[in-house]
Specification:
- It contains seven helices and six strands; from the N terminus they run βααβαβαβαβαβα.
- The protein is α/β, with parallel strands linked by helices and about 200 residues long.
- The chain is globular and about 50 Å long.
């Protein structure tokens, strides 16, 4: 993790709560064992107290899944599952980290939080240049969003213990070898300390 002192300007920083779904983060035994949700909640509370923009990212679709191509290996099974997408995307989010009424919930149809969404518009409207990322899965929304956001010239902070993946080795590889090329990887404690001093 980062050895360079972390600095954050809450007025230009957004906390991205990536895919904190009841199915996924909520039923991941590794996340439960590591206390990822509880750790993320402490970061969320610190971000709110600091006045940071908090944005939630969820995956959801229209009835009939018109957004899903049969060529998409990740999502095509949903289209044939017969499941009806929930009309309220907030219902997908685990109870421990529910959004406040004024906090935007960005609905995406792919893994990347930016692809096909209005996330960039929201961030630009708030003059955000730094993103703090938490979520599930490390190899999904976090990886895909870090890659895009780095190319879009955002300053990135990934909270290691605020992320989880079903594959511990993949999580570790990403946090130790891949993300540091484009982001600062830190602990939740570090983020909370920085925000309390800002």
């Amino acid at each position: 993790m980062a050895t360079v002192p972390l600095t954050l300007n809450p007025g230009h920083t957004a906390l991205l709560m990536g895919d904190f779904h009841r199915e996924g983060m909520g039923d991941n035994p590794i996340a439960q064992e590591r206390g990822t949700v509880q750790t993320s909640r402490t970061v969320l509370e610190a971000a709110r107290q600091a006045g940071m923009l908090v944005v939630y990212i969820v995956v959801n679709f229209r009835p009939g899944y018109p957004e899903i191509s049969e060529n998409n290996l990740i999502f095509s099974e949903r289209k044939t599952s017969g499941r009806v997408p929930p009309p309220d995307p907030v219902s997908l989010i685990i109870p421990e980290v529910q959004p406040l009424p004024h906090e935007p919930v960005v609905v995406k149809h792919r893994v990347n939080a930016f692809f096909g969404t209005d996330l960039e518009l929201i961030l630009r409207a708030h003059t955000i240049d730094t993103l703090v990322l938490l979520g599930h899965a490390t190899s999904g929304v976090i990886l895909s969003t870090v890659r895009y956001a780095a190319d879009a010239d955002y300053r990135l902070v990934v909270v290691e213990d605020g992320c989880a993946d079903r594959d511990v080795e993949v999580h570790t590889l990403l946090m130790q070898r891949i993300f540091p090329r484009q982001a600062t990887v830190v602990s939740a404690e570090t983020v909370i300390q920085v925000l309390s001093n800002s």
